[in-house]
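hiii so um. not sure if this is the right channel but i have a protein structure encoded as tokens and i wanna go backwards to a sequence. like what aa goes where. can anyone help
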């Protein structure tokens, strides 16, 4: 889970801000496969957090 969170962390700022990549906009820097993988990671993390919170 930590590795997935670290990969998401690396993509957060550059994907969010259009001027974060000096070579162009974020939509040109990420592939569809990367987006699908990162969305899957985010969904997994949210599910784990929801399970943990439901136990409180």
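sure thing!! here u go:
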């Amino acid at each position: 889970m930590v590795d997935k969170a670290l990969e998401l962390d690396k993509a957060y700022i550059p994907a969010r801000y259009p001027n974060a990549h000096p070579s162009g906009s974020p939509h040109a820097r990420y592939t569809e496969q990367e987006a699908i993988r990162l969305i899957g990671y985010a969904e997994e993390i949210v599910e784990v957090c929801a399970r943990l919170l439901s136990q409180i």
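oh and Residues 2-54 form one domain.
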